[in-house]
Amino acid sequence: MDSVSIADGIPQNPNEERFKQLVGKFRTKYPDTQPQFLCRAPGRVNLIGEHIDYCGYSVLPMAVDQDIIAVFAANDGNEVQISNTDPIFKEGSFDIGNFSISYEKSDWFEYFKCGVQGIRDKYADRKLKGMKVLIDGTIPRSAGLSSSSALVVCAALATTINNGITISKSDLAELCAECEKYIGTQGGGMDQAASCLAHSGSAMLISFNPLKTQDVTLPVGCAFVVTHSLTEVNKAATDHFNIRVSECRLATQILTHAKGLDWRTIRKPYELQTALEWTITELEKFAIDSLHEVPYTLDEVAGLLNVSVDELISVSLKATINREQKFELCKRMKHVLSEANRVLLFKQVCDSNTHDRLETLGELMNQSHNSCSRLYECSSTELDELTDICRQSGALGSRLTGAGWGGCAVSLVRQEDLDKFIRNVRDKFYLNSNDPKRASKADQSIFPTLPGCGIYAVRL
Ligand code: NG1
């Protein structure tokens, strides 16, 4: 079992100073309490494979250096007290034996509770102890770099350690993917797996059901650069994300029914592909031939599945769905299935030795962005502009990363072009734009990133 090990003492690494400072701040914040542990969960940048984890398909992200860290100690009673070094995040407390998670608020505190709840669910027979926690985070929020999942993972990890629970990294990743759904988004598990299972120096191919990861060595001579579009989208506060999940489910159910299989049990494209023993390309062709381009209404989908709209809603959707909602089934399936193929190709190219592999990887990233923008409609004007500028500035490929509708892009750049690329993007997107916010945030909005390591914990 690849369980989370707890090292003794703060490691000598580039984070050493920040860790020590956080321990100092904990002592100031909770003067009567001796800090006992520190744990860390990184964010991730997804290199390719967007919006397909919840369809059951493999994705290819890497962990980033930006992270969430927590210093904590057991409390005598049931109370969990949490505070954050950033004063914009209000401190608070809750009873570990009795609390609920608010769908509506979707603020940092609720994400922390999600992680605790995940451990409560799995270890329902244990009486969990309260704790005092101080959090520090460096992942930009609502930027597609998984700050929310890193917080959920960090909270769950702290809860296990505080209660002497040993858990494997894979179990923790799976549990966190489930419990983050308490906040209302129906994500697929990429972020939590990347945070828990990453190895320093490698990107990773993550496959689901069962959760498996394979290290992917990125070609020598390339750099990945993250750039922030400086627009933020809180996916828990809008319904874009969950509508996409519903569209993929409904499309799968229509195709499943058309093949005479049970649409109530097959809910993800990958499950259908497996049941039919087809390749991704065969399923893609069948989807394109079977689904029309005009958006579907709930009435039409219910009619195709021979059920009432009420029954369809209860089996496949959330009760809160707007009954007038139209569903883009054909476009979404084209994106999902072509993107699933691009991920496998990206991995193959990384493993190969072809002389033009950087160009091929870049081209796959460009295709992915176009597909996200035109078929999945999860880009934004700013992200389209930013990725265009990145390509004009020397990137071999550039794409939005994470859920989209705002947030960050990731670009593949030749190592020798890196400085020039950063200068050009800085000038064109940030300094010479009419938006004063871009100019003021230029310095913190572009950074090259290397594959970082996953979670770890330290006894203080
Ligand atoms: P971010 O970028 O963290 O909002 C979300 C989902 C992922 C995945 C991507 C799109 C969660 C926690 N994360 O990521 O699972 O579906 O969108 O590829 O819901």
UniProtKB/TrEMBL annotation:
- Organism domain of life: Eukaryota
What GO molecular function annotation could you give as one example from this UniProt entry?
Answer: galactokinase activity
Q: Where is the GHMP kinase N-terminal domain?
A: 111-197
Q: Does the keyword rRNA processing apply?
A: no
InterPro entries in the record: Galactokinase, Galactokinase_CS, GalKase_N, GHMP_kinase_C_dom, GHMP_kinase_C_sf, GHMP_kinase_N_dom, GHMP_knse_ATP-bd_CS, Mevalonate/galactokinase
Entry GO CC: cytosol
Q: Which GO terms describe its biological process?
A: galactose metabolic process
Q: Which UniProt keywords apply?
A: ATP-binding, Kinase, Nucleotide-binding, Transferase
- Does this entry carry the keyword Nucleotide-binding? yes
Signal peptide residue numbers: none
Sequence ranges assigned to domain Galactokinase N-terminal in this UniProt record: 25-73
Query: What region holds the GHMP kinase C-terminal domain?
Result: 357-430
- Protein family: Belongs to the GHMP kinase family. GalK subfamily.
Q: What is the protein named?
A: N-acetylgalactosamine kinase
Q: Which organism is it from?
A: Adineta ricciae
Taxonomic classification = Eukaryota, Metazoa, Spiralia, Gnathifera, Rotifera
